[in-house]
Every structure is written in C-alpha cells, then in structure tokens.
Fold these 3 entries.
Entry 1:
Amino acid sequence: MNTFQAVRDALSIALLKDDTAVIFGEDIAFGGVFRCTMGLAEEFGRERVFNTPLTEQGIVGFGIGLAAMGQTAIAEIQFADYIYPAFDQLVNEAAKFRYRSGGQFDVGGLTVRCPTMSVGHGGLYHSQSPEGFFMGAAGLKVVIPRSPIQAKGLLLASIRDPNPVIFMEPKVLYRSAVEQVPVDDFELPLSRADILKPGSDLTLLSWGTPLYHCETALHMLSAPPPSLEPHIPQSLRSANIELIDLKTILPWDVESVVESVKKTGRLVIVHEAGMTAGVGAEIGAVVQDKCFLKLDAPVKRITGWDTPVGLQFEKFYIPDSIRILDGILETLKY
Amino acid sequence: MFRPAARLLVRRSLLRSSRAITTATPQVPAHADTHGHLPSSHSRITSKLRFFNSVMEDGEQIPTYRVLDSVGKPLEGAEVPEIDEAFARKIYENMVLLPTLDTLLYNVQRQGKISFYMTAYGEEATILGSAAALANDDEVLAQYREAGVLLWRGFSLDAIMAQCLGNHEDLSSKGKQMPVHFGSPEHHFLTISSPLATQIPQAAGVGYALTRIPSRRGRNVAVCYMGEGAASEGDFHAGMLLASTIPSPTLFIARNNGFAISTPSTEQYHGDGIAARGPGYGMWTVRVDGNDVLAVLGAVREARRRCVEDGRGVLVEAMTYRVGHHSTSDDSFAYRARQEVEDRKRVDNPIARFRLYMESRGWWSKEEEELLKTRLKQDVLKAFKRAEGLQRHELKEMFTDVYGGEEPWNIKEQREELVGLLKKYGNDWEPWRNELARFKGKGQELLGDSKSA
Ligand SMILES: Cc1ncc(C[n+]2csc(CCOP(=O)(O)OP(=O)(O)O)c2C)c(N)n1
Ligand SMILES: [Mg+2]
C-alpha cells in the first residue's frame, strides 16, 4: 500500500466502525485530487461522503458544528496552502471550544486532513508547510505522518482523539512511499516521537518529507560519494547520529527529544517551512532551556528560507540532503 | 447604449430613493396596502405570510441574455451591440489565438517542458467578449483562466511564454509562480494568485482607489473575474458587500463554466446561480450566454457603463462550459462523460458561432480562416521555441522582492548562508551543479560579490 491508499484504508475503517462519521471537502466525492477518498462515496453513500461548496472556512465551521453534536467530522482541505481561510475557525473556534465552555462543549470529533509540503514544482501556493502557524493554538493537535503505516495508524488515532486534530499528509509521499500496511484497525499514539535510528553523537529531528532527505544525508555522511569525500573528514564518517521523527508537532514529545539531546549534546532540526518562528524555533528554545549544560553546540535549524517558495528556485529553497549533511558536519565540528 | 438614457436616469433615481434609509415619512408606492411601512425603511407592512426564494417575481429562473443563435444568426428582436468589422475581426482573431496558444502549452506541459498549465477551451467568448467591452486601462483582477484578456490588451506571446517557462524575461513573477500566473501593470492586470477568491474584496478596494485618483474617477472601473466555484468562498460575499455598500465601481464577472475541478455547479449552490446573489447586495445584475461573444460584449459594456455611472458594484454571470480538463493535473473523464464534452463542443461552440456571424456579414471567409490558423500556429510555436532555450532569472532573485526598502537581517543572513553552501558544494554536488546551470549567470552573481548581491 502506498500512502494515499493507507489514508483511504483508515478512512474506510473510520466510516465502518463509527456510524456518526462523515467525510467532506472539495472534490472528495470522486476520490479527491490526491485519490485519498476514492470509492468511499460509492461504498458508504453520498450522505456520509460528500462534496462541499468551495469554502474552507465553511468546511471547518461545518465540521465544528458536527463535532459539537458529538459526531465524527473528517474534513479535507484540498491543500495545506489553502487552510488559511479556515484559520479563524481553527484557531479561534476549534481550539477554544472546550475551554470557553468550561468543558461543557468540545469538538474532539473534528479531524482536518490536508496535503502538505513541497513536491519540487509547486511554487508559492502548492509547497507550503504551515504547521508552525498552529503552534500557538493550544487546544489543537497537529500530526504529520512519514509513511503509509504511520499515516493509517496516526490518522485513526487522530480521528478518535478527544481533541480537534489537523492531520497534514506530505503529498510527495502519497505515491512514492510503499509499505506492507496491516489491513486491520490499529492506532499509533499521538505525541510520541519515533527514534528511527539510535545514535549517541548528534540528534537529527524532523517530520514528514525531510526525513527522507535526512536519511540520504546520513548515508552520505558514512559513505560519501567520491565528489563529496573531500568535504567529509574521516573522523566524522563514523559519527553516530540519532534520527527522530517527531510525528506529532503539537503537543510535541518533549521527553523523547530532551532525553535524546541530553545523550548526544547536539541537535539539528530540519523543516521545510521558513526559519523565523518555524516549529524549530519553539523546539530549540525548549531544548536550550532543558538541556543547557548538556549542549556541546548551538541548536541548528536547517529550514526553508524566510521567503515564499519561488517555483524556479525550489531546489535551492528546500532543505535537501546536502544542506542537512552540511548542518550535521558543522554541528559535529563545533 | 441599449436603453434610452432618459429611462435609465429615471430608474437610477428610483433606485436611490428606494434604497435611502430615512426617518422621514416615505412616499407610499401605489401598490401598498393600508398598513404603512417599517419606521426606518421602505419595507411595506403586510398581513400576508409570504416566503420567497427567488429574485424573479414569478419564481422563474433569471433569464439569460443572448444575441446569436447556435449558427451565428441574431435572434429575432435581439439587441445587437454596436460593432464594426475591424473590431469584430480583432475579437475573432483573439478568440482563435487563445485555443491555439492553449494547445501548444498544454502539449508542451505533457512533454514535461513546463510544470503546469490551464486551458480556457470553451470560454473564449466569455473572456474575449468581456475584454473587448472594457477600457484597456480598467484594472483587472483575474482568477487564472483569463489570459485572453491579456492577449486582447497586447501582452505579447513572448511574455506569455516567458511566464510559463519561468525564464529570465518573465516579468510577471520572475519565475516565482507556477505557469498561468500572469501579471502586468502596463496592461492593468494584477498578478494572479492561486488562493481562490482573494481577488474579489481586493477588487472592491481597487475600484475605490480609482475613485480617489482624479484622472481615473468616473473613467475606470476595477474588473474582477472569478469562477462559479470561487464564488462560494467567504471572500466573494465580502467583496460584493463592500463594492455595493462603500460603494466602489467594481465590475464582477463570474464565469459559470459548470465545474470547479470535479464539482459540478449543481453541488456548488442551491440557488439560482451566481446572478441571484447580486440583488441581495442591491447590485445591478445580468446573466448572459457566455458562449455568445456579442451577448457578452453587449452585457459587459452596459454593466461597465452602469458601474462607472453609479460608482457601485455590478455583477455579470456568464454561462459557459469548461471544455478542457481543469488543469494538466486533472483528468476530467474521472467525473464526467467524454460524450458530454464532445456534445457541448459540437452543439455550442463559441468560436464557430461568431465565425458564422462574421461570414454572414461578409467579414470573414474560409480562406482567411485557413490563413489565420496557420499564421497563429506559427507565431505561437515561434514564440515558444525562442523562449525555450532561455535561462531562468539569476539565482539571487530567490531572495528579492520579499520586502521593499531595507532588506532585513534574516534574509541577508540566509542568502549569505546559501552563498557559503554554494561555494562549498556548488561544484561537487551534482544536483546543485546541474541546477545552477539553468540560471542566468549560473549563480556567479551570488558567489562573485555576495555582499552586494
Ligand atoms: C482557497 C483555495 N481553495 C482551493 C483551491 C484549489 N482549487 C484550485 S482551482 C479550484 C476550482 C475552482 O473552480 P472555479 O472557481 O469554478 O473556476 P474554474 O476552474 O472553473 O475556472 C480549486 C478547488 C484554491 N486554489 N484555493
Ligand atoms: Mg468553474
């Protein structure tokens, strides 16, 4: 199964097991522009799987209404870049529904799915990683899976979590990542990071698409291609890097990250969004607070630049494997 | 131009008085019953409980204005807009140029030479009929399927190619935006933005700005194009409301082409299309056959005249059909029958309708048709070939135009960081080496003199 099929599989289980669950969004009835809802309208009927008019604020507001009535609302925003018209509904409404009613009302049944991150030729409005904009919206959760298995387990957990969740699916992984995904109903816990590769010399932290660039960078570090050999001192090639997938961006797994950094003394954070006030800024601030005396180098952020994503410049915008490799080397040498 | 001016004046003054909110005793219209009015409006008090869900009195759908029938013959009694041969030929030639350009760019996208494209097949009459009805310096805020407006205004094929290929001649966005995101101050066409409907309230602001510029007040309007799908966004309602209330001379042109990607218009709204919303904002509104270029020309001319004269928003809904796929990322046969598209193309072809009219006036011939098609194909291909080999803008442009004025430290620092990385790896890391070769100057402007880059 690849990622879009795993998402579809999770959605189908959610509909099957929960009679109150409905799925809606722009163009989802015919399967959605990324095919994640393919066949669901036929299987479960148009009353449960339906197109909405083209209004993101409407879609999220509508989902909040459903969830306030105790039902399961699974909304799709066609691209993460187009989530901003719904920003008010998400940040002022969904996030605060429980608090402002003294716990009498909540919209825990709301899950908002949206494709995210760059594909290499999306330009300003089909490449964004807007997770950072939600960091201050206490009450919301933000989840980003890295693979088909993760997508299925985390999506089911998000749908069933008692809080509203924004579930961002890295769109380049819809077709590229393939795994043997268990066909049964399973959940993976939110707010738990995964150590993808244990290590002791440096913590490399990311989520979504850049994880794959991180893996490439680690491979280049230990076994550099001939052209890069001069750049990589022998002594650093055997560095033992711990690679962590944060998975849940809000609220994030501070325990795993801090424990890792205390062990390695070095942290490199990679995300596609720009640097200023990106998620890395928050994590860096917390880590320097909790690990100050253990740090052997400043926390390094390898991110997109503080510019919009210019189409023809994308290969130099995205924090790719060479930039990550360089960040690792610089941090190890510090 | 259709109505005697005197009648229009009467209508306008009626509109004003009926909309005025006043505490003075309102004039009682003849049809009022004996219960009077609400104190602060002209809403008549009635003892009948009566609901309504249509803007037409009889509950009928809003009619569609048409001039030419499907074989290009004026309907009986049709109000044919004034048009002379030269003007008609200009419209027609652009109507043929648009799909010629679309076909080339669609095909080169399929060959991987550009990253994306959107055609306007089937909407040529809506786009060119409206473009021709505007003043060339009316400010246009378009959605994305309106490149024909630019063609009409003389935006060159080279400029089109430059934008779609993102080469160093691209002034629309210096290669920063995806193909079809054109823009040109010289052509009074604000740069396209992908997020839908954002241009709609902006257009109301542009219209208002025009009233504040003495040389343009009462002369120009803001023109806002949108799809019937985009009209579902909150921004649509915001823009319409502002343009009618503030007010602001803004001409809204809704292209109702039946689809928003896969979503048919029947799932986009329950009411009577987009036109039904105009009266809700107290706006003059008309629905027009968007595949009849003369009807579009006439309707938009009159809409524009009212817009200028009243200084208030006016709405035109053009009924058309999206013959092409939504974009090169879409295969529309996943949600509509191939036959449906073929039928629409055959039965109601906007280009053929106008050609037949032109022929009937003796303004066009088969020979000219052949010559035109050959010439336009050559022009388009030549422009593409020329643009294809050109490099992109300089790499330093990645960091420009974020801010005006002084460049903030973070942008400076990040550019320096990239320069450092390029110095280290630009030669040795193949993906970057290959990529650098595609930029004008190959990144040297950054490496050579990074401080002033
Ligand atoms: C805010 C926002 N939401 C979603 C999209 C994705 N999208 C791009 S075009 C489109 C359909 C627009 O349909 P319509 O307005 O009818 O214009 P048409 O394509 O028919 O010309 C959608 C949903 C977007 N660009 N912006
Ligand atoms: Mg449409």
Entry 2:
Amino acid sequence: MSSLLDAFRLTGLPAHAEAFRAEVKAFLAEHLPQVPVDVRARSWTGFDADFSRQLAQRGWVGLTLPAAYGGAGLDAFSRFVLVEELLSAGAPVAAHWIADRQSGPLILKFGSDAQKDFYLPRICAGKAFFCIGMSEPNSGSDLASVRSRATRCPEGWRLSGRKIWTTNAHHADYMIALVRTSGSPEDRQSGLSQFIIDLKQPGISVRPIVDLAGDAHFSEVAFDDVLLGEDALVGEEGSGWKQVNAELAFERSGPERFYSSVVLLDLWAECLRRNGATAQETALLGSFLTQLTCLRNLSLALTALLAKGESPVVEAALVKDIGTEFEQAIPTAIAAAISAHPDKPVDEALYRTVAYLNQVAPTFSLRGGTREILRGMIARGLGLR
Amino acid sequence: MFTEAIEKILADLCTPTRVRAVEEGGDATLLWNALQDSGFLELLTPEAQDGAGLTLESLLPIFTAFGRYALPVPAAQSIAARALLRDCPTGMLTLAGSAWRQADGSLCAPQVAFGLLADFALVNLQGELLLLDCHLARRQSMGVHGSQCATLFWPAESVGKAIGNNGEEVRVFHAAIHAATIAGAMERVLDMTLEYCNDRVQFGKAIGKFQAVQHQLSVMAEQVAASRIAAELAFSAALQVPQLLPAAIAKARTSMAVPQVSAIAHALFGAIGITEELDLQLFTRRLHEWRISEGSESYWNGIVGQAFLDQPGTCASHFVRHVALTQPA
Ligand SMILES: Cc1cc2nc3c(=O)[nH]c(=O)nc-3n(C[C@H](O)[C@H](O)[C@H](O)COP(=O)(O)OP(=O)(O)OC[C@H]3O[C@@H](n4cnc5c(N)ncnc54)[C@H](O)[C@@H]3O)c2cc1C
C-alpha cells in the first residue's frame, strides 16, 4: 500500500476534548450574535471583533499557546472541538482566526523572546488581529517568485512592494509578510524572510477589494519604502520559505476545510423536517452526512498526528482537497434540489444562503493552496514524478 | 497474528490464476479447506466453543485482505455467520440480506453473493432469520461474466421455520463486509495503477509524469483514503455485529467511491486495462458488483438521511459525531 494513506486511521477524540465541547456550547448559547442564517453562512470569513474579544476573554483565542502568554495551553484535539463548534454554529471568527491558527503558533515557534512577550499576550487578549501577506499580483501559486523586497538599512529594513488578496488586511493590526531579502525571484525559495509589520506605520496603504457577493474580506496592500525595525524580522533571515511551510499541516487539515457549507446543510435539513422529504432528498442528505463523517475522521486522524508533534503536510493537502470538493458540492446539489419543484414555495433564507454559497464556493479550493497545486503535492506523496 | 497467517494462505493459494479458475467454475475446495482447516472461519466463535472469540476490530484487516486478493469464496460471509447464528453447519455459508415470498410460497433471495457456490445461506426474510440449504434451491446465475452471484429460489416445502428475528443483521453485516472488501480491492487497484503509471512510457516519459495523470491519481488516492476510514468505522466497535449507522455510512461511502476509482484506473491503464489477461479486471469487476450488492449508496444514504431527519433539532455536526460516539471505547 502506498504509505501516504497509512496516516489515516480511525481516531476518537480524547475525553478532555469532548468535555471541553460542553463549555464551548455553553459559551455559544450566550454569545453567538443573532444574525440571519445567510450571514452565519459566512462562517470563518465573518468578521466581528466584539465576538472575537469575548472569545478571548474566555481564554480561547490562542487556544494552543502556553498559559504563560495568556493562552489556554490546550492541545490540537481541543482546537478541533472549538473550531468544529464555532463553524457548525456559523460564528464570526474571522477577526482572530489567522492570529489563532497561524500567526500565534508561528511567533511561538520562530519568534524571539521579545516578540513572544509582546505579541502573544496581545493575540490571546484579542487585541492584536493579524493577516498573512504572501500572495502578490504576480505571485499566486508560484509563491517563491514574490517580488516585495526588504533591504537592509542602518535602522533595520526598508520594505517596498505589494501584497494582494490579504484576508482582513483592512481590519488587522499586523501583517506577517513573506518578502525577498536577498537575491532575485530566480533564486526561488532561498532569500525569502518573514516580517511582522505594524499596518499603522507610514508608507502603507490598504485597499479593500469587494468580492462577487458584495463582501470585502480581502485587500490589496502597498508598501512604499516602509521602515521596519530590526525586531520586525521573524525567525532567521532567509528561512521564510521553511517557516511558511512548517505550519501548512495545521492550515490544511482542520474542520474548516469541510465545514464551510455546514450551516446551509443544517438549514436545508430543517426545511426537509418541516416540509417532508422525498426519497431522493433523504438520500442526498444522507450522502452529505456519510461524506462528512468520513472527512471528519480523516481530519481527526491528522489532528492526532499534530497533537504528537508530527507535521503531515501531504496528508493535509489530501484532506483539504477532498474536503473542499465536498463543501463545494453541497450548495450545487441543494440548489438543484430546492428548485426541482418550481410550483412550490422556497424558504427565502434557504434560497439566499444557497445563492451566497454558490457564488463564493470557488474560493474554497483557491484559498490556502489551489486544487491543482494540492493534487500535485499528493501525487508526489504517492511516489510519482 | 491472524491477519498475517491468513495473508500467507491468500498469497499462496488465492493467486490470480486460481481466482480466474474458480470464477470459471473450477474447484474452490483447496482454497476453502485451507481457510477452514486452519480454523479461520471461527474467528467470531467464542473461545469457550474453540473459536478465537474476536470482535469486529480484529476482523477489518482480514476482510480488507480478502478484497485485496479478490478471494472467490464466501469466507467473510461464513465468518460473519458465526456471530449471527451460534451453530453453523460445515460448508460454504453465504449471506442474503433480502428475500421475499413468491405467490406460490417459494422463497426468492435476489442476487446472492456467491450464490452459485454456497452450500448454505443465512437469509433475512423481512426481519426473520432463516438458515437455508442452497442445494435445495434453484440457482439462477445472474449471467454476468465471471460473477458468482445468483438469485436463489427455494420451493415452499424446503423452507423451514425462522431461527431468529435478527434477520436485518444479515443485511447490515453483509453491507459492512462489502465495505471492507471494497476498501481492500481499492487499495490493490491504487497500487497497481501507481505502478503502471511509473512504468508505462509515452512521449518519451513515464505517463505518471504528466500532470493530468498525476491529478487523477491524487483523486483516486483521496477516494481510497475516504473508503478505508469509512470501512474502519463499521468495524470499530468491540462488538460482534456491526451497528446500523456505522455500517450504513461505510457501505454508502465506499460504494460512492467505486465508480470514480474504477473509472480512473481504467482510464490510466488504457486498452490493456480492459483485457482479461490483466489482473485489474478481477478487482474492478468486483468493485462494481459489491457496490450494488445489499443496497447501493442510494439505499444506505437514504438510511443515514432518514436517521438524521428523525432527530429534530439535531445539527449535522452533532449527528456525525454521535455516529462515532456510539462506539463503545
Ligand atoms: C478568499 C481568499 C482569501 C485569500 N486570502 C489570502 C491571504 O490572506 N493571504 C494571501 O497571501 N493570499 C490569500 N489568498 C490568495 C490565495 O492564496 C491565491 O489565490 C492562491 O494561492 C492562488 O493564486 P492566484 O489566485 O494568483 O492563482 P494562480 O496561481 O494564478 O492560479 C490560477 C490557476 O492556475 C492554476 N495553476 C497555477 N500553477 C499551476 C501549476 N503549476 N499546475 C497546474 N495548475 C496551476 C491554479 O491552480 C489556478 O487554477 C486568498 C484567496 C482567496 C480566494
């Protein structure tokens, strides 16, 4: 057997993580903002700074960061439960999402003591929101070709260039950017470094970009000779590529890679319960649950590896690819199902939610690495090329 | 321990040549006796009755191995029968998850796996459990090339009394068996296809170097990964008979993967893939048969969907977690 698939063994959640679920549910019962269902369907792109701060007060932003920095010091299993409950409820988690999932752990792993002391408590308090500046107008999948450049100067570094599609840049306090510090784009992965950039500094302009559903969740960010102190560099100069890749297994294996349409799924099920379901609709609903069960088990298997300190990067690419295919299939199929009976009324909230998800579903397999790129990684993991 | 011993028997005796011979009506006794005489049919029989006293968890690797070797005898069915019925007769025993009475009182069990070979069938007659002697039945081959599947008709007078009311367990267990053998056969198909794509050269390079081919293999691997973990769910409990919902999800998910896995394998093998000579067909023919045996994904997804609809106020996340949680630790 191809050993790539050996990582996927059925794993249950440990008791402490299941026990944690009750706390999360109780929190949500009290604090989940009362918004229409098609707004809840925005899921992890829904921005609500107040909600994120309430979550932070509960200790659940920076969930896996050590208590010394204000984190909850919980493990990957607990994070799985928190994310699962937040997404299932359609909670607006975008404000703290990136800091919690990526920036915090990155600073913990590669940052200096001073950086940890400064940023981590702020992240855990919900007072520092982050964004990730990797993509540029001419560097998408081919990330190693980034051209934004930081050049050494007596005070530290001077940064010029542009980032694009940066989720939440217009709301965020800080960006962690991947930029070139030596060589040229032809040098590829070498010569790239990561910087923490305070977005309020002079020389930075942020322009929100409106998407096809009318939302502005990402931005274009321009850096015009921005002065960065010595302490802005995270980790080692020239190690940016390695550092970016270290977190990929966390980014791609979680429930957010198959829960993006779950609010719609639940809404549709409610409508079927109310109005009755045909055998076909029941089987379609069942097929979603069947797939969801298996995806969740695939993801949990990787969570167990993450909890052990492993980094199953290719396996995570596999979960993300099959997971996003599933979350894209849900609005496609439900759209067909609700309009299979043109002479019957359609629930308006259901209609809006389906329409919204069909509009944005293409992003599921773009953000975090495109389908084509992931499939190339999986193929290599299978021993091809 | 058992798995390795059984794999050894399969590697020695369940060769592609023998699989073909049995499919053509050749003698399966040698293979069957090897499994029977080593006591491997008694894996679920309690230790007090000289069995191995295993539970489902230990069976999964064995049943997937049966799929990986395209085992042409009803060993998985006979093993399962020991959990459904304490005193099983000696001989090849198969499972029939559905059956009905005809107008003339005779009993019809449609498309029974191994129906052409089996000595006995454990039959689910609308919830009642019957043990029937296949030699008393008229066996009507389905007429599908290479298939050992047959519809069986028992004359009214040959149908004895029900021996239990756990007939539905036959269907559920058999569906779980198919899920495991599908997962096993898919592992084999994936391995064969990967190997072929690294070896076959066109345009001066291995076809596995073409991105279009790589992406298809990645999709196949995803489907196999999902199928394996689905099958594991049905066999994850320390029980002797799979539970309804885990088995339903396992059978539905593995069946859903069959068309794609099989289609990709055949697409990548090109013309040679559909030849009788290449072993691929031993597996893809079975995958298609197992997908529609004991209910396709349409049936089992219907069971899953109905179970969800029957729980008002339950969200999808809760439901899928509950399926996993019903497993005793
Ligand atoms: C909602 C959303 C949020 C995002 N948030 C962020 C963010 O916060 N920070 C950030 O840095 N970026 C972000 N991105 C950008 C995202 O990472 C990029 O969209 C992604 O990496 C693809 O780059 P691209 O859009 O330039 O497409 P391209 O790389 O130009 O790709 C276009 C098409 O070509 C295909 N392609 C490219 N190369 C190959 C190849 N070698 N083989 C086969 N096919 C190939 C791609 O798969 C795709 O289908 C976000 C994107 C979206 C949609």
Entry 3:
Amino acid sequence: MSSVPDFKRKAAQYHLKRYGVGLLFMLPWIIGFCVFVAIPIGWSMFMSLHKVAVVPGGFKYTWLGLQNYRDAFLKDNVFPIELITYFQEMILMVPIIVIFALLISLLLNQQFPGRFVYRALFFLPVIFATGQVLSELFTQGAGDIPFLDQYNLEPVVRQYVGGELAKTVMEVLGRVVLILWYSGVQILIFIAGFQTISPSIYEAVRIDGASPWESFWKITLPASVPFISLNVLYTIIDLFTFPLNPVLKHIKDNMFKVDTGYGYASALAWIYFGFIFVLLALVTGLFSRSMRLKGGRP
Amino acid sequence: MNTEPWVQRARNYATSFLWSRKAQKYKMVMLGRNLSDGLLAKMVIYVLLSIVAYLYLQPLLYMISTMLKTVSDLLDPSVKWIPRVVTWENLTKAYKGLQYPEALRNTALIALSCSIVQVLICSMTGYALARLAVPFKGLITALVLLTFLIPPQVIIIPLYVIFSKLGLLNTLFVFLVPAIFGQGLKGALFILIFRQFFRAQPPSLEEAAKLDGASAARLYFRIMLPLAQSACLVVFLFSFIWYWNMYYEPSMFLAKGFTPLSIRLDQLEDVLNPSLLGSKDLVSNPVTEGTKMGAAFLIILPPLVIFMFLQRWFITGIERTGIVE
C-alpha cells in the first residue's frame, strides 16, 4: 500500500515524463517570452501610467494615473488627427492590396509557359519592400502611377470623394505602386490557397455547363474566403510597421522630448495598439461570421 | 436567290471550311477547351501581367536609372529614363559612403546567424506546440499570437533598458540573444508556420520511430527536422530578408559602431554633406539623389542574387509547406 507522499512523488514523476520533453523543447521560448516580452509589456504599461524622467543611474517615476492617456486625446493636437488619418488610409490600403493580390494570383494561377518568371517578378518586392530602401524611394516620389499626372485625375477624385477624404485618397494614389509592393506575401498565400481547391470540382461544374465566369463566383471565390480573411489580417499587421507611418513617427518623436518622455510615448503606443487590436477583432469576427453563414470551412 | 454563282461557291467553301476538322483545330488552339487553355486567353494573360509587372517594377527601374545619372542629367527634366551619360561615380561614392565591405559584413553576420538560429528554435517550438504534450498549450499558442501582434514600439524602451543592463547594445548579440530564446524578428510567425507544417504530417512516422526506441531528441533531429526541409528553407529566407532589411530595431540598438547597411543608408546624407547636418527634411536633395539610389541598389543586391538562385525552391516550398491551411 502506497502512502500519500509516495503517490504524490509518482504523480510528479508521471507529469515530468509526460510534459518533460515538451517543456524542454519549449524552454527557450518560455524564457525568451518572460524576459523579452512579458517584462517589457508590464514595464511599458507601468511607464504609461507615470511621468518618466531620466536621471543619472535610472528613471524617476511620478504617478500620473490615466493622465497620459487623457492628454493624448485632449492636449495633444497632432496624435488624434494622425491616428484618424492613418486609419482612413489603412481602410483604403487594405482592400487595394488584397484585391490586387487576388487578381494577380488568379492570373498567375493559370497554366502558361513562363509562369515561374512572373511569379518571381511579383514576389521580388518582398525582398526590399521593407525598411530604409522603401522610404528612400518614397521621399524621392517614385512609385506613383504615371497616368495620375498625365490625365490630371485630382479634380475628378475631388469631385467624387469630396472634402478631407479626397486628400487621403490622393495621398494613397500617389504612392500606390509602393503600397502594392506590400502584396507579395499575399499573392503567395492566395496561390497556395488555390491549390487546395480540387480541380475535379471545376470539371464537374463545366460539364454542368457553367461558364468560367460563373465558376469563379460560385467556386473560386467562396472557397478562398478563408484566405481572404487571412490576407486581410496579415495586411493589417504588416501595415503597423509601414515605414512612413505617421503615428509611429509621432511616438518616436515623443520618446525623446523632454516634457513628454517615455511615459507619454508608451501611452501613445498602447492607444495605437488598442485601436489596431479592435480593428483585428472586428475583421476576425466579421469573417468568421460570414464563413459560418455560408457553412464554409472553419 | 439570284446571286452570282461565284458568291454561292464562296459561301459553300466558307461553310465547308468552318465545319472542317482543320478549322476546329484552329479554334481549339485559339480559344481552347477551357478559358485558360487557348492562345487568345494566354495572350491576354501575358499582356495584363506584363503591364502590371512594368508598373510594379517601375520604382526599381527608377532606382537603377537614377543611380546611373550624372547630376546635370538629374536636374534636366528632358531626361527621364535613359541618362545621357552613364556614370559609375554614384556607385563608387555610395560604396565609400556606406563603408560597404564593413557594413556588408555586419549585416550578413546578423542576418545569417540570426536566421539560422531562428530556424532551429522556431522549428523546435513549433514542433512542441504541434505534437508534444505541453501544459497550457492553448494559452501558450495564444501568447505566441500575442507576441506577433504587439507592435515593437510598445516594448522598445524597456527592451532598450534590458539590453543595456545586459551589456548587449551595439553588438551582434542584441539580435542573436532574443533569436536564441525564440523572440527574434517575427519569430511568432515562424513558430506558427512550423506548427502548421508539423501538424499536417502523418503521426505514423513518429510512432514507428518511437517503437524502434528513438529518443525524443533523436526523433526530432533525425526525422522531423529533415522532413521539414521546405518549411526550413522558407523560414530561413524570410528571416534572412527581414533581418537584412530591418531598420527600426537597429536604429535603436545598433546606433553606432556595429551598424548594418540600413542605418548607414539613413546616415548617408550626413556623410555626404557634413555641412547640412541637422537640417534633414523629407525634401530630397537632387545632388545626392543618385548616390542614395546607388546605395539602395548596393543594399538590395545581395538578397536579390540569393533570391535569383533560390526562387524556384522558395515559391514551390511555400506552396508545399501548407502555410495557409
């Protein structure tokens, strides 16, 4: 008959055996998460509730409560406007990128000689569409579509869109090519996604007399809803770190200002993250609902 | 119908031709059985793709053409794409301004070491999440997703303090150490890719190896990792490219001394014109424009060459990895 401590030891041994290997494999990540993610997150939240001043040998914290968050909307006359403008741009950019990626990947998915060359071409921007090279191209004004100036589209946009929004539309159009450069990964995801639709479905539909046009709307598009949602999410996340994002620049500027400092900058970053998070949650909710309604794949 | 006999003959000939086997064959070639089979559809696809590809690659062409222009060509509005005189001066200037060999070595060192480590660690983590028994697996997966979503700006200041306490700033280890602990650049994405990949593998392989008495480590390194070759290649290349191009993190952690190419490109304006120091606006300066484009070209050249050699495996690898399941 085993006593209680013995039983406990056996249970511990069992758990160790069961979880030991898995924990060993996860160990680097768990340590890394604690040191490089969890502590910084907590610290940054702590900072955002304080006024942080740099003194020799460390920081000096003064408790402010939610003052920083309040200031971001009430006192700061740049941040809310930039946030709104950026979200307007994002709402324009995400559909542009995803629809462009969908169309191009539909074309690239066809069988034709030289397909590999074109696939490589459209993936090329992923190699350098991040970071400094991209913003260098932005500042030099490369990347607008040539017919924008040639046909003088600005008044047309102004007439149909009107008001403040026209400015945003023009800004997005002015660098549309570089924005499209963000669609390399999305194109790949779509192409890989199309491979999962079985060709026999197309064959069956064709025998039933459906035109290619119909088979696109009735089969390809519904089957790629999960990939569209994946791409929308990926695009939103990717655009967080868009190199010319005004919000991020504002946060960085505030970090090194004496009167605002790290505390305020952290608060701004958290507000920004909050907005993005809400947006992501909305998109996820929307897509999962539409998928459930159609009875598509989970 | 009182038509001329030759019209009648021509009509007869036309109808007989239209129904002949030859004509059917032509029609087959032009239009195809499917929409995408025919020659006509192929032409349309080629033309569409070529136009879009031209628009798409225009900034790259702009970069190369600007790089080869002299200053007078740059200021001359009548010179658009093809420079009057091809000059290599911009490239040599950029080469010197970037201190290319040293910066290239730094960048390559960071990108290579970190991406190799990332492949190893992320695949291990992904494998554990996919196949091994780990307590609170759901919670951990959610946390992995969270690390993917948190913008770096939120945690950059505490990270800076932590790195400076550990004495890692301005060294290679400021990127290598987080990579070793699974928190490298976009590490969460790679973990999820590997998790997806390992989940799609049949479990019978592992069972067979376990029956033969293989230990977990042996099972992983001898069977699972070699199996994941295509996923490893994809992750390695993505990680390499992202480390190569990253700008925000090194601008905080590697500001002086051990600087990669992207930081030097940012500082190039100051190196070229020390007199303009501090007045750095977003207005582009036509005198240094060509040199900057040359520098940008020098930066993207090595990954471009690598991609040219590996693109075939890369793209099929992505299709096969099942990232999208």
